Amino acid sequence: MGAYRYLVFPRRQQPTTDEVAEFQTYAMLLKRRYAIGRESKTDALVIAFEQEVFDQALSADEGFELLIRKWQVHGCELVDKLKFVKDPDALKPTRVHPLERHPSPAKILAAKQQLAQEAIAKSLLNVEQTLSRMTWLQRVGRSVPYALIALGTIGMIAMGFAVSSRLESAGRERRQDTFERVSTDAMQEKLEAETALATD
Prior knowledge:
Layout: E1 4-8, H1 17-24, E2 34-39, E3 45-50, H2 51-60, H3 62-73, E4 77-79, E5 84-86, H4 105-168, H5 175-188, H6 192-199
Antiparallel strand pairs: 1-3, 1-4, 2-3, 2-5
Helix pairs in contact: 2-3, 3-4
């Protein structure tokens, strides 16, 4: 069984028709993985979400996040465990939110503080990720010259071995053999002068 998040409305409190219409525009963002129902003990309206999908949608879309925070300002709570009873008829939107005209200042302040803290946390996380990428790029940049030098050295050594191997396998006559062959041939051949005298 997967993890869920439950948005619990205060007892006998419903979202407005405009809020419901706005919520329905996020159905694809939520991959339609949510259900309408009620809490088994209090009969309070509950919207159940798959936890992973809900968290992704909350961080990906500012409009969806603002809608959830607005409901929290009006007393809704997000909980991870609840005795949930699926009941589509539990949703009965109203034209005007009962707390729309007189929202609690304490709740508004708490919601604003929560939004500010989350915004700061996201900014710090983005800065940390950027610094990590910059540090990695700097390390790579510093290592590139050494890597090129190493590759050049390896290439020169490999070329030396290749040239040496080709010379050794070419069947070249040893220097000592050359000296012996030349000296032997020189002793056996007649000089041109001797050949001329013998002819006369």
